[in-house]
Amino acid sequence: MSKSHCFSKLFVILLLLIALGTATAQEPQYGGTLVFGAESMGDSFDIGFWHGFGGVHVIDTIGEGLVRADFENGGALPGLAESWEISDDGLTYTFHIRDGMTFHDGEPVTAGAIVRSMTRPISPDDPSYIDGMYMYGNQGTSNWESIDAVDDSTIVLQLMQPNATQLLVFSRPDGAIISPKAMDEYGAEVGLNMSMAGPYKIERFVPGQEAVLSANEDYWAGRPYIDQIVIRAYPDEAAILAALEAGEIDMTLYAPFTSVPRLQDSENIRVEVGAPLVDLFVGANVAKEPFDNLLLRQAANYALDRETLIEAGLNGFAEMPASLLGPLDLGFDEAGREVSVYDPERAKELLAESGMDLPVAIEVAYENNRFWPQMAELIAADLEAVGFDVTLDRLDAGSFWGKVGDGQTQLSINQRSTFVPDPHDKAILMARAGAEGSQTQHQALEAADAIDALVTAGVSTVDSMEREAIYREFQALMLEQLPYIYIGYLTPPIFVSKRVQNVETFGTAGGRINLREVWLSE
Amino acid sequence: MDCAITSIQSCAAKDYDGNSMFGYLLKRLIWLPIVLWAVSSLTFLALRIVPGNPIQTVRNQVMDKSQLAQVEAVWGLNRPIAEQYLHFLARLVRGDLGLAMSSGVPIRRMIFERMPPTIELAVVSLFVSTALGVLSGVASVAIRSRAIDYSIRTASILGLSLPLFWVGIMLIILFSVKLRWTPTSGRIGAGVDYEVITNFMFYDLIATGNWEAFGSFLRHLVLPGVTIGLTSAGFVARLTRSAMLEVMHSDYVRTARAKGLYERSVIWKHAMRNAMLPIITLQGLQFGSILGGAVITERVFSYPGMGAWLLDGILERDYSVVQGGIIFVALAYVLMNLLVDMLYHIIDPRLRNAKR
Amino acid sequence: MRARLGVIWRRYDIALVSSAIFIFILLVTILASVIAPYDPMARNIKNRFAPPSRENVFGTDQLGRDVFSRVIHGGRPILSASVSAVVCALAAGTAIGVAGGYLGGPLDTALMRLMDVMLSFPSILLAILIVATLGVGLLNVTVAIGFSMAPVFARLVRSIVITLVHEEYVSAARSLGASDYHIILKHILPNMMPPIFVQASAMLAVAIGAASALNFIGLGVEPGTPDWGMMVAEGQRLIFDAAHVPLFPGLVITITVLSVNYMGDGLRDHLDPKLRGQGL
User: Fold this and answer.
1) Is C160 on the interface with B (CB under 8 A)?
2) Do B304 and A245 touch (CB under 8 A)?
3) Crossing angle of the two packed helices B146-161 and B211-248, in degrees rounded to 10
4) Which residues of chain A from 177 to 216 reach within 8 Å of chain B, CB to CB?
5) Which residues on chain A are in Cβ contact (under 8 Å) with C43?
6) Contact criterion met (CB below 8 Å) for C121 and B39
7) Buried b (16+ CB within 10 A) or exposed e, A290-313
């Protein structure tokens, strides 16, 4: 027997073993309780309001909209609608609703019930109506010409303008459908008694503390694996770590990154890495001195040593940046990798070229939680190394958004996550048409109109090839004008106990956890 | 600083006006609405001065900007501040606290959710500090050891000054992570089933005979209760101690001793009555301040009480939450103050007869 | 003479040791830049979270800075903020308390209800609002803490003044035609000093704790500044992974607070021998 033959035989055996191993590992089991540690738990789950990420996690676990988002490949997956057609002009959407579904309270899911839930924000006579349900604004309601339940299983939505993201926004938390019975019964307090049609239903809700969810036996895609999911708030980072160590929680996104090396080696905990869906960036206020000067924005851009920032500020949990859109986005442009680079010499030259007296005094604003303080100190050091004189402006969340909104900041560090897998999601929030609320006040740029036109074109164009071209142009323009300076794409660690299997790492990375396929071994 | 422990020494030397109790209480009650008006106006003003508003904090979650303008109009944030203030006062007079701007939930509902947990926490922490403080105070006099004296002083200073987030996390590491005796945080175990009636778990769980949940509930109260309790235990000990020393050097105890009364009964009867006044004052005010001020303890222990709620409200700039919450906290504080004064008069016969 | 020193030592041993420790801490704080082995701001990213060693006696922090040097430099901000907060609160509180207690009447009632308003507003929330409005920085921390402490002093001072006003020597002075100004300056102020000193030293401890707490909520001194409170607050999340980062500054805070308080007790004993040995 030749040596190589022996090896190949071993190889085959090894392969078989691996196959066997994965086969046993992939046999999902039913049952068990999973405790998810959230950073917060709101006071209600009314989808018309923002209740922090704790609220988003609960709604994503109990709710279901017409469609679901595919964060891995982009695009929409069937939800309450098993299929749909969109007219060629992009104005008429016809949804075919699955038969035989029920809400958690037993009410049948009909086209009529869905339309009632979707039109809640524009039905002041509905008992569940509350003035000022701002989150519904994300559903694109103001662009709806009409929405009708043609029969029990068909919905026709007529738009005024084409909207390339219309389908996907139905997968947002604010697109989840509420049972009409709950809307009648609880009226304006429906948020405290949510009944939806998702894979889990609410057993009990303790505002500010936890939501106890149980498997929905009648879920259309089949009962989920886990019996009970508890989503519980741990606002303090050390406390969430303690709960993880004590075995009280099975899964979280909110433990400090610095603990990863130790936890990775621990007996009961595993760390998975999320997909690069979240942008980290420095926003420069282009309406205010000194960053109204492009040369200074460029200098700041080249001053940032991203590798060190990612290593020391984020414990390595980020990918190197390119542009405003991420590698998973439609129309992502690799060319940005040439611009978002560390080149301190070039930064110094640009500063010299600007003719300003050195060092240039600037303020850098950031939120006073999570990894931001550490990042801010590193960014300040980089900027000071090339000729800026940095004052750090540490702000609570309210002050941060207040100052940013009022255009009082110079540089501000922040992130943007993806709620739906579509480039428009980032584009509109970071370079908002009309711009009043954009972090960079980019309406002050000469190119502002061009940027706004591209954002608008991106969303009102239906053809995806054309959209791709538009977003490439958009990214190029943003890189040329540099209202944003990119730090990286966050690939957040997902902390799970070892018995948690089949963790979804795409939506989860952007804060939209998906527990419907997760199961527990043992 | 978590609880307004800062007020302790001033209350140990409680001011007394020398009026009759009834007249005094009446005077205080007349002032109550004025104090509440001042507190709520101060809150209103502070929230308008501080940078950021409820719209700006959610702006990045909303794509359709026209929605936000609409919301601004709904809450009246686009009107002049004076008009907003009058509107706010008018609603306050009617007892209408409105809806939370960030969540759309009625404030009264939130008070129902958040007030009982905090009251329970306050009761437990007072129990802890009183028991611990009185015992060690008595011990220090009875044993008369300099070492014990100084350990109590040291403990009281540390209890006062060590940051609560630090004490809290240390207790969690020791008792929850290493020893696994207590849960790390929360009000009750994750997923434990129970029925809510009054939202005072102490009552609800006993009334429904849910002993399993009751056990979990008590275990969850231990660490946060001890964390807050430690801040005033040292003070209670010092008050007890000095009251006892004073009594033991007083004439009537010497007389009692001369008559041959058993020493322990002397200490208890006279000294405890003497010590009770400052302790009640101290603990009463402490109770009042925990109701709104256990911000850090509630945060570290993920405890769903008033303090954590108000902190979130401030960070989100939820005007109606902060305005509504602070009024309740102030009301609780002032009422507690009144109650303490009443007890004072009832317990101390000297004060009761002062006017005659 | 020798015997007399012995008596003093026996009476004030702990107070004297505490004073020595506190003076030592003050000296180190003042001479920080001479004593510290490294620049407290110097980062060394490659040497993050190094455990205590010969080079870095207290180890290094999340940005590779020397914790020992930061502890040496870190006393100045927190101590100056706390001390000035207490001094300001004491001054304001004394003014209000004396005015109310001595003059009495409607002014007194109004002042005390105003103090009620301030006290019934949860102090930490008040501090958050103040710092959020004024921004982070040492001065604003001072203002926030001082503001929340002033009513405490005011009430204490008032209650003392009320008892003093009825003392025989004050009545005597008054019947002899002494002016209010004279009575307050010569009879009231000196006699309230002992309890006020004890209160002030206890409040200094509270102020130091409060300054750390503000940092924990994310409002405090400017980021990066070496400051004990900031180091403890920022290090709290590292307690499982690099305990030396928060532990050493925490220890120093503890020692400082204790020594200040025992010093205050000793001083009180010295000023008011009546109370000696009675604890509070």
Assistant:
1) yes
2) no
3) 130
4) 188-189, 191-192, 203-204, 206-210, 212
5) 378, 381
6) yes
7) bbebbbbbbbbbbbbbbebbbbbb
Q: How many CB pairs under 8 A join B and C?
A: 186
Q: Is the CB of residue A456 less than 8 Å away from at least one CB of chain B?
A: no
Encode pLDDT of A176-216 as tens digits.
999 999 999 999 999 999 999 999 999 999 999 999 999 99
Q: State how far residue B241 is from chain A, nearest Cα, in angstroms.
A: 37
Buried-exposed string B292-330: b where 16+ CB fall within 10 A, e elsewhere? bbbbbbbbbbbbbbbbbbbbbbbbbbbbbbbbbbbbbbb
Residue with tokens 């509905």: A126
Segment 222-241 of chain B within 8 Å of chain A by CB? none
**Best mutation target, C65, C217, C241, to test chain A (most A CBs within 10 A):** C241
How far CA A366 is from CA of A375, A391, A397, A409, C109, in Å, comes to 9, 11, 9, 10, 45
Instruction: Say which of A259, A392, A399 has its CB closest to residue C224.
Output: A392
Residue A152 sits at φ, ψ, to 5 deg, of -65, -20
For A195, the token pair is: 């009944």
**Nearest residue in B to A40, CA atom:** B302
Peptide bond between residue C37 and the one before it cis (omega within 30 degrees of 0): no
Give the pLDDT confidence of C94-144 residue by residue, as tens digits: 999 999 988 888 899 889 888 888 888 888 888 888 888 888 788 888 998
Instruction: Determine the distance from the C-alpha atom of residue C260 to the mean position of all C-alpha atoms in its chain, rounded to a whole number.
Output: 8
Quick one: tokens of B49?
A: 């001065």
Burial class (CB in 10 A: 0-12, 13-18, 19+), C77: buried
Q: How crowded is the C-beta side of A162, counted as CA atoms within 13 Å?
A: 16
The pair phi, psi for residue C211, each rounded to 5°, is: -65, -40
In a mutational test of the A interface, the residue from B105, B109, B188 whose CB has the highest number of chain A CBs within 10 Å is B105
Strand A360-367 and strand A411-416: the pairing is: parallel
Chains touching A, CB cut-off 8 Å, 3+ pairs:
B, C
Residue A140 DSSP label: T
Residues A272-307 pLDDT 10s:
999 999 999 999 999 999 999 999 999 999 999 999
Partner residues linked to A278 by β-bridges:
A490
Is A408 strand, coil or helix? coil
Residue C42: its chain A contacts at CB < 8 A? Answer: none
Question: Which amino acid type is present at position B212?
Answer: E
Q: Measure the CA–CA gap between B5 and A346, rounded to whole angstroms.
A: 56
Q: Tally A–C CB contacts below 8 A.
A: 68
**CB-based contact A242 B172, cutoff 8 Å:** yes
CB contact under 8 A, B31 and C159: no
Rounded to whole angstroms, how far apart are CA atoms A50 and C173?
Answer: 67
Task: Copy the structure tokens of residue C280.
Answer: 């509070």
Question: pLDDT tens digits for C215-268?
Answer: 887 777 877 789 998 899 888 888 888 999 999 999 999 899 889 888 887 877
C152: closest CA of chain B, how far (Å) = 5
A429-475: pLDDT as tens digits: 887 654 455 778 888 888 988 998 999 999 999 999 999 999 999 99
Q: What is the ipTM of this complex?
A: 0.87
Cα A26 to chain centroid, rounded: 28
Helices (H), A160-311: 166-169, 180-186, 237-245, 260-264, 294-303, 306-308
Quick one: tokens of A212? 């106890």
Rounded to a whole number of angstroms, the distance from the CA of A98 to the nearest CA of chain C is 48
Q: Look at residues B240, B262, B266 and name the one whose alpha carbon lies nearest to residue B252.
A: B266
Q: Sign of dihedral through CA atoms A510, A393, A484, A434? A: positive
